[in-house]
Amino acid sequence: IENVKLELEEKRKKHSRRLMAVLGEAIAKKLQQKEAEIESMGKINCALEEKVRALCVENQIWQNLARSTEATANALKGNLEQALARVSEGRGDSEEDAGAAESCCCDGAEGGKRRKEAGREEEGESRREKGCWSACRRCGEGAPTVLLLPCRHLCLCGACSPAVDACPICKCTKSATVQVYLS
């Protein structure tokens, strides 16, 4: 009986050792998997932190651009309001302003003179007919909300702008337009 007890005890110990070894291997394997996951998550975390830093820098760039654009828009709005105030006072463009406008126009000095004369004739007719810049120079119905470049005339409504290739005031070829929103 004593031998049987010892033998059973020895079998139980062997079984316990095998069980512990199997459990140890399973735990070690699981631990390795978790360590690999932690390492992978660490790499992903670093990549995400780098992406966040890049997005913060990009966000700052966009904010600076928005501020700059807003400042430019405010300056242009102020210039436009001053020009409209001069027009409403009956002064129109002074010779200095006309010279500045000519220098940015398409044809040089002769074209500027021709545009100035054509513009004065048409402005005179238009002012008598419609009252100073209160209507589109093409259709006569819409409010002028489109600024033509390079001549800087505010003379077309949004509907007529795409159909016009040259300024109706000075006949300068249109290179671009700017939609103007007056408050």
From TrEMBL:
Matching entries from Gene3D superfamilies are given as: Zinc/RING finger domain, C3HC4 (zinc finger)
Domain of life here?
Eukaryota
Q: Which InterPro entries is this protein grouped with?
A: Znf_RING (IPR001841), Znf_RING/FYVE/PHD (IPR013083)
Task: Return the Pfam families for the record.
Answer: zf-C3HC4_3
Span of domain RING-type:
136-171
> Keywords on this record?
Metal-binding, Zinc, Zinc-finger
- A Gene Ontology BP annotation from the UniProt entry: regulation of programmed cell death
- GO MF terms held by the record: ubiquitin-protein transferase activity; zinc ion binding
Write down the PROSITE patterns for this protein, in alphabetical order: ZF_RING_2 (PS50089)
- What name is this protein filed under? RING-type domain-containing protein
User: Which source organism does the UniProt entry give?
Assistant: Nymphaea colorata
